[in-house]
Amino acid sequence: MASSLEYVEYVAGQIGQAGNISYKKLFGEYGLWCDGKFFGTVEDNQFYVKMTQAGHEMLPDAEPAAPHGGTPGMYLVEDLEDTRFLKELVSRTCEELPQPKQKTAGKKARNHG
């Protein structure tokens, strides 16, 4: 079941105090960014954040999840009512994640042969 845009907008509103939240379609579901940094997804109308030490501390009972298959690398966030908690979770998660790589125009492919 795909996520509804209404649910994605609800999640974005609930976490909006953490920074400039944006989202876009990503492989049939939605990716979430805070201040330009990818930190989570909404899949099957459920909110996930990347696994970090902050997530481990703030969501101690959460099991590592793989909402899109593959290796578990996300935590399911079930409580979306406490906006203060959500702000701290998203902020601390993003602090631990690396800065996005800058895209360079005109970069040529390297031949490894």
List keywords for this structure.
single chain; 6-stranded antiparallel beta sheet; Competence protein TfoX; TfoX_N; 113 residues; 6 strands; Yope Regulator, Chain: A; globular; 3 helices; alpha+beta; 27% helix
What would you say this structure looks like, in words?
- The chain is of the alpha+beta class and 113 residues long.
- The chain has one domain (5-96): YgaC/TfoX-N like chaperone (Yope Regulator, Chain: A, 2-Layer Sandwich), CATH 3.30.1460.
- It has three helices and six strands; from the N terminus they run H-E-E-E-E-H-E-E-H.
- Strands 1-2-3-4-6-5 form a six-stranded antiparallel beta sheet.
- The chain is globular and about 45 Å long.
- The relative contact order is 0.19.
Class by SSE composition:
alpha+beta
Order of H and E elements: HEEEEHEEH
Cα-atom Rg, whole angstroms? 15 Å
The percent range for helix content is 25-40%
Instruction: Give the CA-based shape.
Output: globular
Biggest sheet, open or closed, and with what strands and sense? Answer: 6 strands, antiparallel
The CATH architecture is 2-Layer Sandwich
Blueprint (SSEs and pairs):
Blueprint lengths: L4 H10 L6 E6 L2 E6 L2 E7 L2 E5 L2 H6 L5 E2 L8 E4 L5 H14 L17
Antiparallel strand pairs: 1-2, 2-3, 3-4, 4-6, 5-6
